Structure formats: structure tokens, C-alpha cells
């Protein structure tokens, strides 16, 4: 067992930060939290303590929507809306992942950068290429980080070099599951690209396999107005965009992540709630692609779960702390635009989305409660406070979220294991 | 004379970047640009060249709305709208600047951080305290950076410790002008806080002094809906918020910067255009205080000038590159919300706002044209491109703006003089 001492902050519930100033956390040999204390229990007083001093100890980040093969496009090419952006920038880049060597170089850099930014687990879109996707899974596994790896299914309205078929996807999925069988923290996730790229045939196959192997599902939903009109044309029998997934067993029949939901309302919101489908809010992406502002407060009021995603390369940055900023900020614009009718998100609410809410897709992850995996970051924020250290730890965390960066993250743990940026794959 | 070689980018006009790949720039002993070349003229071939290799050379940033005394509040306390935020967080912090020692510590840190983030000139709000304001001016001057320094005028609806009067402001302003007489790049700017804090008496005095000494003016305009209603009540005889400044000679009678303008339209927009009043767009601030989205495209279409401001501590970060990101992003949200009627801002447009447009308030500053001051940054962006350096310099600059930070700024020049972060005041 290990004992860590630090200024500990986490969000067991979204409404406030729980703070242990100079507190202790005990972690067993499997990386599972055994207790959190303000004062160390008497029976542990003689045990060695890893003392992080005045530093902050917080749960690690979970990125619940991220496209690993778009890493090289991060920070460029943001002058278009979704559909032309996909065709002009994204698909040509993803085609390169037929080349395993290219894939390995990009995926190595991607996983390392994810780690640098403090994200220990992610729900990831790969491409349609099985070998590249296996390489991505192996990279996460060797790094000791957690991931849900999505071999993308797409069989229409896409470049020839990028499509698969219902049967090729199903057989590749079998290979993927086999190659991941021994990975403790890396698992598969069923990943239809989005309705416009998927015929009923491939959706049907994906829904069947998701149910058969009890696999989670991830996709995109109601991101852009033109996209939604296109889906209505392609799936006229569906009552809403979400229903087009639901008809094929891909909307809550197993745990489901749906990215964006900028225009989700009415029937679709009810269907999400009824099926406990989780929204992945990607505010940086929604800004960059001019998609709009997802009505997150409305989702929360409707009892729908919300987590956060960087969605690179539509999002411009891998830091989930950066995504938290935008989640609060765009909710404030929505508050202003709604004349105050939709209260804006608080920092503890978005922190909860990035930690405990997102972590729930990986088991007991994202909180410092007993029985949870010790996924944690140690933050040395001294350099930020050049005119005086705030005494209030929550204020220090707030400043780190708004002003800090990877320089201030000095230790990273995934289920108790310290993850080093110098790992060689 | 000095000759610099690098990949040079700037925006003489807002519509596109002008790029000199492996180009040359010549700067005279006064720090004034003598020429920019793709190929070095024959007569200079034997002169020594400072070669920045593959690095980017761009104009330095101009921050046209920033509150120096709010530096210690940066990145915290963003859970309120404008008026309660001022009363709860901002005014109590500004009261501390009666203490010169405190002021010196904060202003030293502020100017250094501004420099670190690549900003060489700024239009700054100080407080109502003359000694602290003189200290701020001195700090900029000793650092070798440019500034317009605003001794704030405010004489109502504010804490007793923070108000001045028309006559005390006028006499302090004389002292300030005297103490700045020998400063080459640091000048005074007439700075009424905003209409709710200023009686007709102080506004009248400020307008008179602005006109008499031909001083520029800066203030806040139409930032928040509640604020606008309050101004209507306080100044019922004015046709709009802007007219309340105009009546006192503070709205374009001399060069004028008005921050925010989230709700400027109709009569007020016409008045701004007629008087060539310049909008300071502060998108990070407008997000954080839930103010709204300034209709920047509408301003540009109306022929109104627009520059950028960090507006800390309502803005959460001093980097104008960060502000550029938000300027593009909130314009994209506005584009989505207007169903495409207001085209979003391009990167060259916001870069122009941060460089040549803002720089115009300091003379010939912000562009690499002949006769302009050599205010420049050298960007070493190699670390950003871990999966391959783009051949296109503009794409490299775009990635730096979205992904880079102060680590990538390796040299900073203000009017030809290299500014060092290690300067001791």
C-alpha cells in the first residue's frame, strides 16, 4: 500500500469540490483507493508517506471523444463547417493510416501528448484500418493508460480508400478484440462514424455485435444543421437523428457516448434520457467548426449525463482543462443569449464531467472515493501565483485550470501506476 | 543598421498574410524598418545578418484593453456578471493600490508577464492612485515597452477608497504628464472608468483635458445588458450609451478606444463610425462575464475599426494569441446563431486587429512596412510539430496561435530593442 499526502481536491458530486487541505490518500497494490483522510489514522502513522507538500492532487482527466488519426491536423484548417471540413481536411489525412509506419509515428506522438496534457483515459476514434487501430491499442496499453478504442465503421459517402463493409468491419472487429484480450485498461468500443457515412447494413451489424459482446458504442449526433437535414433525408423513417441509431441497437442498448448534440431537443432528448445515452460535450470543436452551442444545462435538467471531449482536430487542443474553460464560457454565452433562462455551468460541474462522469465508462474511475482506481495528477502551480499564493486550494485549482498548462503537471498516475512521459514504446 | 533573416509573416491588410519565406528585414539604429525583401539587395550582401533560420518572425502583439491592477485576480472569480463582479472582486483588489509597495510588486509581475506573452505595447487601465500609476508608467518605460497609461477617473457608485474628483483627477493628471514627459514610448490616455462611475463633472473635465492636450481616450461601452439599462437611467438625455461620452468630448474628438460594444448597433454604431471611435474586442472577457458576443463582422461592414484586448481579469489570460482564437471562435458561434448571415472572422483579420490596427494607436507600429517600428517576435515552433513540420509558413503560424504559448516565443523586440524577460526594474 502507498500513502500520498497533498492538497487533495475532487468532485464526488457535481455541485461542489471536496477539499482535503494537507490530506492523505491510501492506495493498494492494485492501484485502488482504500481511503481519503484529513488526518492519517493512528495505525498508519508509522508507514512511509509520499509527501507532495503544498502541491494539488486531483483526479486525472478523461477525454471522452477524440480522433487519434487527426492529431497531425490539430490547430490548422479551421475555416469550414463540418461536412466540407471532413471532405477537405479530415478524410485525406485519415487515408494515410493505411500505412502502418505513419500510423505508429502519429499514434505514439498522440498518446504521449494526451498523457502530457493530463488525460489518463480516453474514448478514441481510430480509422477503418485494422492494423493501425491495433497499433493504437498497443500504444495505450504499453503506456499504461486506459482507452476505449474504436475501429471506425463507414461504408458510404466517403472516399473509396477509407470505407469498409459490414462484413469486413465485423471480421476486423473480431481480430481487434482478440489482440486486446490481454489488455487490462484498453477495450474495444463499437464506432459507427455517423449516420451519413453508414448504410443500414453496417449499422445493423454494429448494433448486433455491440449487443452480443456487451460492447459500448460511440458516435456523433446532431452536431451541425446541414448534417441534421442530410440525416433526415437519408433516414426518413426515423423520428429524429438519435432514433436512426436506436433502430439499429446503437443508442443506449449498451453504454453509449454521443458527441456534440448541439441541436438535441424534444423527442431526441427524451430518447437519450430513456436510454441513458451520454452526451459528450465538445465545446472547442463546436466553436471551431461553427456548429453552435450545445444546451448542456437543458441536458442536465432533463437528467441526461454529460461528459467532455477534446474532439481533436475539430477541437484545437488536447487539454481537457482547456475544454473545461470553454464548457463554462460557452454556457455563459448561452446564458446571455437566453436572457438568463439557462444558468451557466459552474467549475465543479465541468470538473465532474471531466473526471467522475467520464470515468464511469472505464469502471470506478474519476473520483477519490474508496474502491476507485487511483487516476491522479499532481499539480505544481507555484509558478502561476507570482504575486502571492492563494490560501484557498479551490482558487488555486481554478487558476491552474484557466492559466496553467502541462508544465504544471508534475506527476501522472493511472490506476496507481505512475506514467512517465519518457516511456519508449 | 541590422539585417534579420527568418520566415517573415505580417498583415499589411486584413485580408491575407504577406509571407517572405527565408526573407530579410532591415532595421535602422532608431528601430525603424527600412525594407523587407525576399532576396537581400546586392549592396547589402556583405553586411552581417542575424539569421533566425527556420523560425517565424511576426509583428509583436498590442493589447488594447487591459487592467493592470487586476493582475492578481486573473484566472479566478468568474462566477458573476459585470456589476456584481466589479463590486465583489474588482474594486476591493483595486483599493490595494493605495499601497505603493503592493502596486510595485503587482505591476512588475504584470509587465513582465505581458512581455512573456509577446505583447510589446498596451493601452492600460491603472487605478485612481497617482503614485501607483506613475510606478506603472515607469515599469513599462524601464522595460523598454510601449504603453498608453490611464489614470482612472471615477467619482460615483464606487467604494469611497477608490473614488477621485474632477479636480483631484485633473491635478493628478498634470503630475502624471510631467513624470512621463521624458518617456519615449509611454504616454498618458484619458480614462473615465465608465459612465456609471462618472458624474457629468468629471466627464466634462476629462473631455476638456483630452482636447486641450490632444490625448487619446479609453473607456468601456455597451458591455452588459443591465449596465446599458443603468446608463439609460443615469444619462436620460443621451441618445445612446456612446452619446453619453460624446456629449463630454470623449467619443472620437481625440483618438478613442471603447472596449466591448457587445450590444452596439443602430444609432451608437453610426456615432462610432462618424467619429472614428475604435472598438476594442475582448472576447475572453465577454465569455467569462457572460456579457455576450460583440457583432464584430457588423462593425467591420460598417467601416468601424476593431482592435483586440485581453481585458484581464475579466479576461482570463494575457496572451493576445489566445484572444485571437476566441475572436475567431465566438464569431463562428455568431455565424451559426445568425444562420450564416454574419460571416466569421478569418485568422488574418484577427491577426491584423492585434498588430497593425492596435499598433496605430502608438504611431507606425504593428506591420513590417517601411517606416514602421520594428516591434517583433521570433517564434520557434519546432516543438509543436512533433509529427512533421508543415512546409507552409502560414499553417505553422496558425498552429502556433492555436497550440503554442510563451515557450515558443524566443525573442521579443520593441522598436528595434530586444526586450529581455530578465530585466530588473
Overall description:
Two copies of one chain form a homodimer. Chain A is α/β, with parallel strands linked by helices and 425 residues long. Chain A has two domains: 2-60 and 366-418, Urease, subunit C, domain 1 (Roll), CATH 2.30.40.10; 61-362, TIM Barrel (Alpha-Beta Barrel), CATH 3.20.20.140. Chain A is built from 13 helices and 17 strands. Chain A has helices spanning 82-95, 100-116, 130-143, 166-179, 200-212, 225-234, 241-246, 266-274, 283-288, 296-301, 320-337, 347-359, 393-403, and strands at 2-10, 18-27, 33-37, 50-59, 61-67, 119-125, 146-150, 152-153, 186-188, 191-192, 217-221, 256-260, 278-281, 306-308, 376-379, 409-414, 417-418. A seven-stranded mixed sheet of chain A has the order 3-2-1-4-15-16-17, sandwiched between helices. In chain A, helix 3 (130-143) links the parallel strand 6 (119-125) and strand 7. In chain A, helix 2 packs parallel to helix 3, helix 4 packs parallel to helix 5 (200-212) and helix 11 crosses helix 12 (347-359). The radius of gyration of chain A is 21 Å and the shape is globular. The two termini of chain A are 28 Å apart. Chains A and B meet through helix 2, helix 9, helix 11 and helix 13 of A and helix 2, helix 9, helix 11 and helix 13 of B.
